[in-house]
Amino acid sequence: MKISIIIPVYNVERYVERCLASVMAQECECEIECLIINDQTPDNSMGIISRLLNAYDGRIDFKIISHECNKGLSGARNTGINASSGDYLFFLDSDDELPHDSMQALSSMAHRYCGVDVVFGNICSDIPQYRYLNLAQYGFPEYSDDRKWIQKHLVGDVPVTGCNWLVNKGFLIQHGLMFKPGIMHEDEHWRFMASRHIRSVAFCLTPTYIYHLNGESLTHQKFKDRSFRSHLAIFRDYLPVITDVHQYSRVLTYVYRLTRRLGELRDPETFMADYAKFLNECLAAPYIPRSVKPAIRYMQDRKFKWRILSRMFCWRSNGIIRHFDRTDAGNDR
User: Fold this and answer.
1) Mean pLDDT across the stretch 300-322?
2) Res 56: pLDDT
3) What is the domain extent for residue 258?
4) Inside any domain, residue 170
5) Do 161 and 292 fall within a single domain?
6) 177 and 243 share a domain?
7) Who contacts 248 (Cβ-Cβ below 8 Å, separation ≥6)?
8) Using one digit for the tens of pLDDT, what is the confidence trace for 2-26?
9) Which residues pair with 120 in a beta bridge?
């Protein structure tokens, strides 16, 4: 088995040495290549990387690929996918690092369940808001090839990260599961689109990733305008391919929650205009069940008649509106 580790690099001169050193320290029986994608970083990240690679004398095959222009995180990952030669791919953010036995633990799971589509690794964090990433608390099976279980839990319960999983390259290429460019939360988009294709998953409870809080990253910026717009873009792609009707409740409730967080935006009026457009698209879409559309009408104007209509004739919309009520009450978990 061969693993391709893909590391996008942009403005990480403070962290990249720690990241690369953790890759060089991997103790793994399988073959590893590491693709470093220079996304036209303006700082000295590549100088640091060149120094480290010139001094390296190990068995991991490091390669640098440079973009002619900045393509963003999705573009950098897609470049790595296309250039990779591994049987499995692993995405690593350049401000994080790996335990020394990370690749050994994940590859052992892939060997144990030969041909598995995705192996999810574990993250143990001392940062309170990221403790949800610890897989040990969820009671997932070590392996599942139950398509219904996978669809249900992959979308709703498995913690979302863009890194720390081995994905079978053949599976990824077969289903065209590249990362969507131009958005934030590209990992969520990938998970939503992949969930309908994944036939087998494995969970490795050994910690395989060390996450560091980087206050300079896009996800930690003060205003969340791009984040909110990105979520609408993700759901625009996901709604047409939903096969489990329960997922409409998850999506619509999440979108509704965004409207209760307008104080996080620099330009809430622009977002609300896009929100209104999104709802109109949903109402016109033939793929969204009629039983869900009264809830969407309620999202538009909050009129009491949609609540009454749902309670009397559309139990699915009624359930969704009750989720909205829990959001308004601050008890939406």
Assistant:
1) 92
2) 96
3) 221-328
4) yes
5) no
6) no
7) 239, 242, 288, 289, 292, 316, 320
8) 999 999 999 999 999 999 999 999 9
9) 165, 203
